[in-house]
Amino acid sequence: MAGILIFSDKTNLALELLTAANSISSSSADIKAVTINNDEQVQALSEAGANVYRINAADLIMADVGAVAAALGQAAGELGSDIILLSSNRRGKEIAGRLAQVVGAGCLTDVNSLETDDGKITCKRNALAGATVANQYIKADKQVIAIVPKSFAPAEGGSGSINDLTVEVKPSALKLLEVKTKAGESVDIEAAEVIVAVGQGLNSKDDLVMVEELAKLLGGEVACSKPVATDKKWLSEDRVIGLSGKKCKPQLAIILGVSGQVQFTVGIRDAKTIVSINTDDNATMNSLSDYVLVTDLHEAVKAMNSAL
Amino acid sequence: MNIVVAMKQIPDLQQIRIRNRQPLFDDVPLTLGTIDKNALEAAVVLKEADESIKVTVLSAGNEEVEDTVKEALAAGADEAFLVLDDALEGADSAAIAAVLAAAIKQMEDVDLILFGEGSGDNYSGQVGSRVAELLNMPQAGYVSAMEIKGGNAVVTRTLEDCDEVLEMTLPGVISVMAGLNEPRIPSVTQILKAGKKPKEVLELDEVDVDIKKLAFTETISNLAPESNRKKIVVKSVDELLQGLRSENLIGR
C-alpha cells in the first residue's frame, strides 16, 4: 500500500484515523500524521505510535480551508503520501474536497468502513439520504477519504516520532473575527449507553417530563427526531438523531412515536438493541426494531416509570 | 453584484421506494437539492435587500435539468445557466466541479458562489470545495448566517462545537447549512413567469472539460442495509421489561 497521510483538526479523531490507517496498511512506517499548530495533538499522536510531522506556522489558520488544503497538499507531496485520510466532521469534510482538488485525487467523504481488497480500498458510506449504503472505491492512485467519527477506535500505545515540516503559506482572504463556543446545556447523546428518543407521536412538550424521567431511570439521555427540535422546538438540536443530526450506537434505544423514515433511522441503526413503541403497527420503525410494542407511548412510558 | 447559486437535480428522496434492497427510481419526480434550495433562498433574501444583486442559478446535469430548474426560477432566481449532457448524470464530483468552475469562468464578474452543504442524494459535500480551489477563491462552509458588507461577506460557520465568525474578501464560495432558512413556495404567477426568464444552455463541449478523465470513483453496490432485527412483538410493558431484563439491558 502506498504512503498514507492522516490529518484531523481534532485530536480524538486523528487518533481514530491512525487506527483506520493501520487497518489498511501493513507497515506503520508508511503512515504519517500531520498536525497544524497543535502541540497537544503532536504529543497524543506520537504516544499512540504515529510518525508525526508537525507544521507550526502562525499565519496558517484552521478557518482558512484553502490554506489548510494547500499545506496538506504540500505535506503529502513531500512525504510521498498518495492516500490521505481525514475526519468527516464538518471541518474535515470541507477540507476533503479542496484537498482532493489540490492533489488531483478522487475523494469519498462520510466513509464509515474501510477494507482493502486486491489493492483497492473499498469504502462504505450512506447514500440517498441514508436509504442505501454504497460500497465504493477510488480508482485513481491519489485518494482522499474522510472517515465518520467513531467508525474506528482511537489508537493507543506505541512509540512514534516527531518531525518538523515547513510549508509555504499564502496571504489569506479570510479573517477570523470571533469564535463563539457553543453555550448552554451541552449534551453528548452519541456517548450515551441508553437513548430514549421521541418523535412526532409525542403529544406535547409537557409529556417530555415523563420521558426524561424514563431516561433517568435507565441511566440514559433523551434524544429526538429532527422535527421535534427544528419544527416544534421542544428539544435542542444537539439531541437530534439522524442524517442531519447525531449517529448513536447505544446498547439500548427506546424509540417512542417515531415512524422510522431513513432520515431518522440512519442515526440509530447501529444500536445494539432497539425498542419501538408506537400506535401504528405498520410503522417502518417497527421492522427495524428488536422489540415492538404497539400501544400509546404516553401510557407505556408511565407504566415503565412506575415499574422501574 | 452577481451571485451564482449552484444547484443539483436529484430524485425526490421522499418518493424513492426500496424493493429487495434496491432503490427504485421509476416515476420518482426530479427536484433540486433541499439544501441547495436553502442556498437559493439566502441569495434571494440578499437580492430583496439590494436590487442591484443578480441571482443566477447554475446547474450541470442531464437534459431534464432544463425543466427542473424552473423551480428555482420561480423561487426568485433571475436567470439560469445550464450545462446539459446526459453523461453528466451521476458524474463524479470532480467532473461536476470542473464543469461548474468552467461555466462560472464564462460568466461576467461573479462575486459570490453559493452551494448547499451537501447534495440531497449523495451528500458528499465536495463540489463547493473543489470549485473554490479551481477558481482560487476563499471558502466558508456550514454557513448559518451571512451578510454582505462592502466588498466582503461576513459569515458564521457553524461547526460541531463552536461558531466561527469570518470576514471573507469576495469573490468567494459559501456553502450554507441545511435548514438555514425556510425556502419560499412560489406562487402560481411566479411559476408561470419562470418559463419566460432567461436561460443560457451550453453543451458539455462548450465548457471544454473531459469528464471521462475525472471519473475517479467506482460504485460496487448501492443497496438498502439488511435489517436483522429480532422484531419481537410484545403485548405489554411488563413483557417488554421482562425481555430487556433477560438480555441484561436494564436493571444492571
What would your notes on this structure say?
- The complex is a heterodimer of chains A (308) and B (252).
- With 308 residues, chain A is an alpha/beta fold.
- Chain A has helices at 11-24, 39-47, 65-79, 90-103, 208-217, 226-230, 262-265, 284-287, 297-307, and strands spanning 3-7, 31-36, 51-55, 81-87, 106-117, 120-127, 132-138, 143-147, 161-164, 174-181, 194-198, 221-224, 252-256, 273-278, 291-294.
- In chain A, helix 1 (11-24) runs parallel beside helix 2 (39-47).
- The radius of gyration of chain A is 22 Å and the shape is elongated.
- In chain A, 55% of the residues are buried.
- The mean pLDDT of chain A is 93.
- With 252 residues, chain B is α/β, with parallel strands linked by helices.
- Chain B has a single domain (2-223), classed as Rossmann fold (3-Layer(aba) Sandwich).
- Chain B has helices at residues 34-49, 65-68, 70-74, 93-106, 127-134, 188-194, 237-246; strands spanning 2-6, 9-11, 17-19, 22-24, 30-32, 54-61, 79-84, 112-116, 139-149, 152-158, 162-169, 172-176, 199-203, 217-223, 232-234.
- Chain B is globular.
- Chain B starts with a strand and ends in a 6-residue tail after the last helix.
- The chains are: A alpha/beta (308), B alpha/beta (252).
- Strand 15 of chain A pairs parallel with strand 15 of chain B.
CATH class of chain B, please?
Answer: Alpha Beta
CATH architecture descriptor of the largest domain in chain A:
3-Layer(aba) Sandwich
Which series of helices and strands of chain B comes N to C?
Answer: EEEEEHEHHEHEHEEEEHEEEH
In spatial order, strands of the major sheet of chain B run 11-10-9-12-8-1-6-7-13
Q: What is the C-alpha radius of gyration of chain A, as a whole number of Å?
A: 22 Å
If helices are DSSP runs of H or I spanning 4 or more residues, what is the number of helices of chain B? 7
Structural class of chain A: alpha/beta
Which of globular, elongated, flat, extended, rod-shaped describes the shape of chain A? elongated
Number of domains of chain B: 1
* Order of the strands making up the biggest sheet of chain A: 7-6-5-8-4-1-2-3-9
Number of domains of chain A: 2
Unreliable stretches of chain A: none
Q: Which class of the largest domain in chain A in CATH terms?
A: Alpha Beta
**Rg from Cα of chain B:** 22 Å
Helix content of chain A: 25-40%
Main sheet specs of chain A: 9 strands, mixed
Number of strands of chain B: 15
Overall CATH architecture of chain B: 3-Layer(aba) Sandwich
Helical region count of chain A? Answer: 9
Mean pLDDT score of chain B, rounded?
94
